[in-house]
TrEMBL record:
BP GO terms, sorted: light-independent bacteriochlorophyll biosynthetic process; photosynthesis, dark reaction
Listed EC numbers: 1.3.7.7
Protein name: Light-independent protochlorophyllide reductase subunit B
Gene it is expressed from: bchB
Residues that bind [4Fe-4S] cluster: 36
Quaternary structure and interacting proteins, as annotated: Protochlorophyllide reductase is composed of three subunits; BchL, BchN and BchB. Forms a heterotetramer of two BchB and two BchN subunits.
Length: 517
């Protein structure tokens, strides 16, 4: 076991809480020690929900371990059923309670409650949050979905095709807005949404999942397992393309049209706005300013793979790093990394990710809130593309990641840090200019020119590095701010390898020529 300050995923029971909190009419009884109620804060504080999750904790204490903790759990289940009157219940144990082996499923079954009670076996020491959410949704679907009698009937003539949207949960990155955007997109091509699940669904509604014609899997980490089961058991096919980015959204529309029995070209013509702004930018002269920018991508598999495709195919960036913490979907990331000609990074150690980012020296980092902190320390621009996220990534405004509007949001989120970097570079170039420095009065007024300010602060030299001469420090100050640290490190490394005691202007340019080869 490794101690760490940060973690990309919580234990699997937090994933189960994400599903339970997203649904209505469902209650989760969690056998857990006192203190595990911290998980409520993830939803009420970070996601800014107005109500706490529908979870009852047994909250046993140390003194309870010498008594009957099984009776404590049975009492909690009975009281939760009496108080909340849910349509169905989930029962399980947290990572600590798992060790006392009280069998929540068997204990709840012995109560003989008049509602479905779904036991969750979530091995906390082998699995993590996304797997816990996936397993919970799968068990709900498998228990509650009504199986059709005989072969599936054909869609009645005149009825529009219907689909289920699968995967959005509580505490999901932009799930609320993604669902709304995909719903609008499907409506434009003539497809109705029968049910969104887990978000907003009730256990009784899950029984009618098979009434749709097909499933749309928005978040494979959550819904892929349940969708595969429904494909085998209920005869419901499902999509495999996630509509993040212009290219993927077009592919998604064609895939949905094929499943719905619609003309793909006509559907795409109805779906895509004539004035898609992100598409316009890709054809504009302005896009040349960012062509070839180096980008490092890390996050859950779905968002990381999608981000790498957008960066390379739609914005003209060079993908220099691609990785995920989601080991269950590592194959997808490895295949994507091979397409980009780079080595994949599959790890849940944020220090390893930080080292990889520092070594790649990208111009932009696309990652989670962990990478936001890493990029800040390294002085790099960053945009958050994936969970885990913090409160600032649950905006009050409409900000989807999916669909054509999502492509506009991604464009703004990714390009603005680089454009601001360009602006700061220009300010840095003219900071010491006799006419254009920040303290100079307006030139058309004819006033005396004020003295130029002091040069910008330079990155600190590494301990034990060769001494920099004053002329070399001044010359380093002319290097653009976003590569100045790298220039200092390369020059000091160059001087160290050659045993130089001092770094002069000539040393700076010799190092530049050496590392440019």
């Amino acid at each position: 076991m490794q101690l760490t300050l940060w973690t990309y995923e919580g234990p699997p029971h937090v994933g189960a809480m994400r599903v339970a909190t997203a649904m209505r009419g469902l209650h989760y009884v969690l056998h857990s020690p006192q203190g595990d109620t911290y998980a409520d804060l993830l939803f009420t504080m970070i996601e800014r929900r107005g109500e706490r999750p529908p979870v009852t904790y047994t909250s046993f204490q140390a003194r309870d371990l010498g008594g009957d903790t099984a009776a404590l759990f049975k009492d909690a289940v009975a009281q939760a059923h009496e108080r909340f009157k849910p349509q169905a219940m989930l029962v399980g144990a947290s990572c600590t309670a798992e060790l006392i082996q009280d069998d929540p499923g068997g204990l709840a079954e012995a109560l003989g409650l008049p509602i479905p009670v779904i036991p969750l076996e979530l091995p906390a020491y082998q699995r993590k949050e996304h797997w816990g959410a996936s397993e919970t949704f799968y068990q709900l679907v498998r228990t509650l979905a009504r199986r059709p009698e005989g072969p599936r009937a054909a869609r009645p003539p005149g009825r529009r095709p219907r689909c289920n949207l699968l995967g959005p949960t509580a505490l999901g990155f932009r799930h609320r807005d993604d669902v709304e955007e995909v719903r609008r997109l499907l409506a434009r091509i003539g497809v109705d949404v029968a049910l969104v699940a887990p978000m907003g669904a009730t256990p009784q509604q899950l029984a009618g999942l098979a009434d749709a014609d097909f499933n749309v899997v928005l978040y494979p980490e959550i819904a892929q397992q349940a969708a595969a089961w429904m494909s085998r058991t209920l005869g419901l096919p499902h999509t495999r393309t996630v509509p993040i980015g212009l290219g993927a959204t077009r592919d998604f529309v064609r895939e949905v049209a094929a499943l719905a029995g619609l003309d793909a070209d006509a559907a795409l013509a109805r779906a895509e706005p004539a004035d898609a702004r992100a598409a316009w930018y890709a054809r504009s002269v302005d896009s040349n300013y960012l062509t070839g920018k180096r980008v490092f991508v890390f996050g859950d598999a779905t968002h990381a793979v999608a981000a790498a495709r957008i960066a390379a195919e739609e914005l003209g960036f060079d993908v220099v790093g691609l990785g995920t913490y989601a080991r269950e979907f590592a194959r997808d990331v490895r295949e994507a990394a091979a397409r980009h000609g780079i080595a994949p990074l599959v790890t849940d150690d944020y220090l390893e990710v930080e080292a990889a980012i520092a070594a790649a020296t990208p111009d932009l980092v696309l990652g989670t809130q962990m990478e936001r902190h890493v990029a800040k320390r390294l002085g790099l621009p960053c945009a958050v593309i994936s969970a885990p996220v913090h409160v600032q990534d649950f905006p009050a405004r409409y900000a989807p990641q999916m669909g054509f509007e999502g492509a506009n949001v991604l464009f703004d989120t990714w390009v603005q840090p680089l454009m601001m970097g360009l602006e700061e570079h220009l300010l840095g170039m003219f900071r010491g200019d006799f006419e254009f420095h920040e303290d100079a009065p307006a030139s058309h007024l004819g006033h005396a020119v004020a003295a130029a300010p002091a040069p910008a602060e330079l990155p600190a030299a590494a301990p034990g590095a060769a001494a920099w001469t004053a002329d070399a420090e001044r010359e380093l100050g002319r290097v653009p701010f976003f590569v100045r640290g790298k220039a200092r490190r390369n020059t000091e490394r160059f001087a160290l390898e050659r045993g130089l005691a001092a770094i002069t202007v000539e040393t700076l340019y010799d190092a530049k020529a050496h590392f440019s080869r």
